[in-house]
């Protein structure tokens, strides 16, 4: 590649394979939610997605080390990552919007308030409250209780906020060519991410075993697990990405000016942290 030229990647099957793997995983997830018997499909889909990501990123890393990328490719990567995060913002906005609609409109209407208060005729004895511990339909059982935001949720909030700080320190250290400092602080970030995942697992166990918060526990249970569950998946993915970045730092990859792979992982992690702050406020506190 000479000055002024643009690198055109070789033909790749990873995009179509990634789409098929993701589709397979989502079909399994849908079947699990509807029929409750698609764990194998989900597992196969997850393994396929991880495999495609690993091989695809391997090719991108090799192309970068071969010096095939220039400033134009760097801009392309930045735009691509920016649009990806924007799509993630819209993804979570849909679920936050559903939570907002239920709390601000649907529940008050069923309680007799607002322009559609006539909905109260459906269940005259319904009490409009949130968290909704007593769904209007008697065939649906609500949760027995809800979490205190000042226990495990607060601990996880502190963990993620701290992880953003440690990751920023690692990033600044890399830009200052302090690789050992970058490695240590990045390792700390990975540990914090793993701690978050573990505590989230403990919280889910407590939810099912002691609080009666399940996917079948009315609108509160479904919105709780949809929002926190998808966020948890993003934390797991982000932690895996940071593990890969840590391995690359140890192997001597990246420079003080050429490290967009590391920078993109920082963007993603900070986005995940911001989403959690929204979850902590609107799911646990308010």
From TrEMBL:
GO biological process: aerobic electron transport chain
UniProt-listed CDD domains: Cyt_c_Oxidase_III
An annotated GO cellular component: plasma membrane
Presence of the UniProt keyword Translocase in the record: yes
Membrane topology: Multi-pass membrane protein
PROSITE patterns reported for this sequence: COX3
Top EC group: translocase
Database matches in InterPro entries: Cyt_c/ubiquinol_Oxase_su3, Cyt_c_oxase_su3_dom, Cyt_c_oxidase-like_su3, Cyt_c_oxidase_su3-like_sf, Cyt_c_oxidase_su3_a-hlx
Residues annotated as domain Heme-copper oxidase subunit III family profile: 2-286
Keywords: Membrane, Translocase, Transmembrane, Transmembrane helix
Location of the protein in the cell: Cell membrane; Membrane
EC code: 7.1.1.9
Transmembrane segments: 12-31, 38-57, 77-102, 153-170, 182-199, 219-246, 267-285
GO molecular function, one term: cytochrome-c oxidase activity
Family: Belongs to the cytochrome c oxidase subunit 3 family.
Protein name, as recorded: cytochrome-c oxidase
Organism whose genome encodes this protein: Vreelandella subterranea
